[in-house]
What we know:
Helix content of chain B: 25-40%
CATH architecture of chain B: 2-Layer Sandwich
Strand order of the largest sheet of chain B: 1-2-5-4-3
Distance between the termini of chain B: 67 Å
Shape of chain A: globular
Radius of gyration of chain A: 21 Å
CATH topology of chain B: Beta Polymerase, domain 2
Oligomer: heterodimer
CATH class of chain B: Alpha Beta
Helix content of chain A: 40-55%
Number of helices of chain B: 6
CATH superfamily of chain A: Cytochrome-c3 Hydrogenase, chain B
Strand content of chain A: 5-15%
Largest sheet of chain A: 3 strands, antiparallel
Largest interface: A-B, 49 and 43 residues
Amino acid sequence: MSREKTHVIPPAERAEPDLSSGKYLVMWQGPQHPGITGNMSLKLVAEGDTVVDCETHVGYLHRGFEKLMEDRLWMQNFPLVCRIAVPEPDFNEYCYAAALEELAGVEIPDKAVWLRTLSLEMIRLASFLMWIGGQAGAFGHGTIAQWSVTMRDYVLDLFEELSGGRIYHMYIIPGGVRSDVPKDFFKHVLETMTIIRKNLDDIELVMFHNVVFKMRAQGLGWIPREWVDEYGITGPNARAAGADRDLRKDPGYLAYPRLDFKSITGTRSDAYGRAEVRLAEMYQSIDLIRQIVDRMPKDGPFREKLPNPLYWKIPAGETYVSAECTRGEYGFYVVSDGSDKPRRVTVRGPSYTHAISLMERLARGVNIADVAGLMVSLHTYPPEIER
Amino acid sequence: MNELAKALAGRYGAGAWHDQRRDLSSVVVDASKIRDALRWLRDEAGYRHLSFATAVDNIERNAFTLTYALRNHETSHALIVHCDVDRENPAVDSIHRLWGQAWTYQREMKEWFGIDFPGSPRVDEEFVLEGWEGPPMMRRDFNARAYSDETYAERPGRATKDPATHMKERLYPEAAE
Lengths: 387, 177
């Protein structure tokens, strides 16, 4: 019985344009280009100003993380993992720490569970704020970026207060979190959330009702619902296409089962619809942060005692720990052979699918000027592709 | 889940079912049946989402263990399917027609481990290592440090210092003497 779907077109079977015909123009967008997210590049073949073929090229950021990790102690890998997705280091920290704890049989205190959830939601908001500036900028709307990057900086201030670091926090560590909350931290969190929420209202008014944004984003990069499974699409890209999938809800991890929220799905599966879903998730994030501050235990231990990290051997086994990051399913697959170093660590980043297979498919038929907007609407970070 | 284990064992001779967590299990399938097993899991068992595919170099038993991570969103259950291939001339059936993104994982495994997937699109193209001429770099017997020392010339002024000795000399010079 063959149930192979006919509408999955592997790239080898795409229409190969005859480049010697003189009808086409080959151009590279990236690796250094304002319309590309991070250091990757798109090789575009255009006929007139319409893209007929697109190839994603990665490798500009390859630093061999996965190979390096096999040569280092479990704990020595910690400063490495957070560098795999720069704007969202906390998801790497959480997935790696949770995988180690699961293999080593370490239970973390309840307060650490809540602080981890808080840290993940704060970085989700910061990352979305950075994204919305990029999305508006890709359609010639630079003001939004100036507002939203300021708001992101306020969240980074909170991280600095909490962990000492603005970009790489290394706050979530195996056994719990690195430190307790400083004095008045929750007060500052709530004040910042009020400021950001007000700013989001302004962004919504200026961006989502803007005729230029509407005309350029609506209908751009439509993802049919059936592609979600066929291309392994996750996160807001899948939810905007109507797939009700959020790992925070199902299966649920950390303190999320104890919070009140609904998975946000959309009805428009184009760049505009995806932006709407992400905006709604930013409001949701603010609400979740407030709930966490309200419900979390204010006392108790925040870290479990671990063995000496220089001699820490993790029992043999394998596990896969995933979390819902801003772009979708983020996960660490960790294999231990019982020694003091990992046998294999693989990072599953959502950009792997979104920036290569999906982007190559969606770019066909798009105007050259809209490629940047399409790219940003998929919300991709190249470092997690190359690891 | 045990129904699934039985079904996989009956149809594809799968063995070694292991429940790692409530929402994560793993199973081993013979490499010759991996594509059929994955197709059955996708079409009949609800594991429609491919999270990732990768390989682990088990050099001690002269095998690469391929790892396919699937997820069933209805039951919120993730399943890791393993199959072993020999380290000498490894080749596995391609699954690029089952999932639209699978070819990228296969291209990566070809470049990083040297595992071939006959028929997979662009499988021989460079992925992240541009102009790479060395052996597949994720194999356990590839020593990155030795390769680097042999391949690249040393640049003056880039001598590395042992951190412990260096700090001792800088911070506590009297103790070093």
